[in-house]
C-alpha cells in the first residue's frame, strides 16, 4: 500500500472513531444535563433531544432553545433560535470518554474558558455551588 493510501486509511479510521465517540457522548446526553461552568462561578444548563433540538437555561436564568447537529469531525454544533441571536453555530469537542460525571475543558462562543460536565438527570442547579450559581434559575421555577 502506498504511503498516501495508508495516510488516507488512517485518517478515515480516526474520523470514524471520533464520530463513534461523539455519537455515544451525544446519546448519553439525552435525558441528562450538560452543565457549562464559567470562570465567574455561574452555570448554564443544556438538554439535548434525539430529534436535534435542545433547550437550556442561560447563566442569567433566561430560557434558551435551538437545534444541534454532529459535524463531520465529531463536534457537537448548537444553533440558538430563542432568543434570536446572530446566525451562526457554536461547535465544541465532546469528551473522549462518554460517561456520566465526565468533565472536559472547552471555550464558550466568545472564546472564554469554561468547563463542561455531563451530569445525570435533568438538573437545574449545581449542588454546593452557592446561591450565585443557581439563584436566577431557582427564581424562574
Give an overview in words.
There is one protein chain. The protein is α+β, with helices and mostly antiparallel strands and 141 residues long. It has a single domain (3-140), classed as Lipocalin, CATH 2.40.128. It contains two helices and eight strands; from the N terminus they run αββββββββα. It has helices spanning 3-29, 131-140; strands at residues 33-37, 43-48, 53-57, 63-70, 76-82, 90-92, 103-107, 113-119. The protein has an eight-stranded antiparallel sheet with strand order 6-5-4-3-2-1-8-7. The protein is globular, with a radius of gyration of 17 Å.
- Unreliable stretches: 1-21, 128-141
CATH topology: Lipocalin
So what's the overall shape? globular
Q: Percent of residues in beta strands?
A: 25-35%
- Main sheet overview: 8 strands, antiparallel
Whole-number average pLDDT? 76
Q: Given the helix and strand composition, which structural class is it?
A: alpha+beta
Sequence of secondary-structure elements: HEEEEEEEEH
The tally of domains stands at 1
Strand runs, count: 8
**Share in helix:** 25-40%
End-to-end distance, in Å? Answer: 62 Å
CATH architecture: Beta Barrel
Gyration radius (Cα, Å) is: 17 Å
Total DSSP helices: 2
**CATH C-level:** Mainly Beta
Please name the defining characteristics of this protein.
alpha+beta, eight-stranded antiparallel β-sheet, disordered N terminus, disordered C terminus
Concise summary:
It contains 2 helices and 8 strands.
SSE layout:
Elements: H1 3-29, E1 33-37, E2 43-48, E3 53-57, E4 63-70, E5 76-82, E6 90-92, E7 103-107, E8 113-119, H2 131-140
Antiparallel strand pairs: 1-2, 1-8, 2-3, 3-4, 4-5, 5-6, 7-8
Amino acid at each position: 500500500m502506498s504511503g498516501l493510501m495508508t495516510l488516507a486509511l488512517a485518517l478515515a479510521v480516526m474520523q470514524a472513531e471520533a464520530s463513534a465517540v461523539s455519537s455515544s457522548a451525544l446519546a448519553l446526553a439525552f435525558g441528562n444535563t450538560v452543565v457549562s461552568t464559567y470562570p465567574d462561578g455561574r452555570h448554564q444548563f443544556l438538554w439535548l433531544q434525539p430529534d436535534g433540538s435542545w433547550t437550556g437555561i442561560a447563566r442569567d436564568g433566561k430560557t434558551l432553545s435551538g437545534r444541534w447537529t454532529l459535524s463531520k469531525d465529531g463536534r457537537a454544533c448548537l444553533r440558538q433560535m430563542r432568543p434570536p441571536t446572530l446566525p451562526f453555530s457554536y461547535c465544541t469537542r465532546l469528551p473522549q470518554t462518554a460517561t456520566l460525571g465526565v468533565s472536559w475543558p472547552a471555550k464558550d462562543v466568545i472564546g472564554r474558558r469554561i468547563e463542561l460536565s455531563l451530569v445525570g438527570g435533568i438538573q437545574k442547579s449545581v449542588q454546593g455551588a452557592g446561591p450565585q450559581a443557581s439563584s436566577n434559575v431557582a427564581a424562574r421555577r
